[in-house]
Amino acid sequence: MPNTTHPLEVRKLIAKYGERVVLNQIDMHVRRGTIHVILGGSGSGKSTLLKHVVGLKEPAGGEVWLLDTNIAQADEPEYEAVMSRVGMLFQGGALLNSLTLHDNVALPLQEKTSLPQSVIDDIVGMKLDQVSLLHAAQRFPPELSGGMKKRAALARAMALDPEILFCDEPSAGLDPITAVELDDLLIELRDRFGMTIVVVTHELASIDKIADDVTMLGKGNVVASGPLADVRQYDVPLIRSFFDRIAGKSGGGSESVLHALGGHLPGDPS
Length: 270
Fold this sequence. Notes:
Helices cover 36% and strands 23% of the residues.
C-alpha cells in the first residue's frame, strides 16, 4: 500500500543484469519536501537504483512506490500520469541542440498540456528567470557554457511544476563555483516550493551542503541510510573516511574512498 508521507518508497528491491544481482534487498524512503542523496562509488548500484525508481528498468523483486503508484505494476496510462508529476535532470542535460532554450523548456508543456502558446510562453519565461537564464531564451545549447546548460535543463525539468525532481550527477563536469550555484538552486526549490528532490552524486561538497537524508550504497547493498547528520556520526571506518573527505581530514585520496564504497560493511548481505 502507498505511504503518502513518502513520495518515494523502495521496498526490498532486487535488480539483476542477467543472473548477476546488482541491487540486493534495497530499502529506501524519501521524506516529502527534503533533498535525499543517493551516494556511493563506481559500481555501487546508484545509477541502477535511479533507473528502477523512475521505471526505466523492471525490478527482479521488491517494489517501488512513486507518488502512491507501484511503478512496476502500473499500466501505460498510469505510468504516464505519474511521470507527468515528475521532473528529471539528466547528467548531460539532454537538451535538443536544434531548439532554443525557450523551445527546450516549452517542449514538455506542449506535449503534456493543452495550454495556449501565450500561457506556455509566460511559464517558460518564469522558469528561465528562476535559473537566471531569461536573457538567453533565444540562444541554442551549443552556445552555452556547461553550467548554463545544466540550469537550462533544470528549468525544463521544472516546467510542469513536478512534485518530485530527480537529478543524476547534477554537478558533474562543472567548475566549483558553478557547482555551488547549482546546489543553491536545488536548496531554493526545496525551501521556497517544498519540492522533494532526489540526487544521485558522488560530489562530497554537494552532499554536505544539500542533503537532508542520504542512502549510501556499496556493492549493491545499503551501507547506511537516514538523516545526513546521523549517518555522519556512525562509528564505522568506511563511513568516517567518506565524510571526513568533505572537511579535508582524511589522509586518503578521494579515489580510494570511492573505491572503498564499492565494498560493503561486515555483516551486510553480499
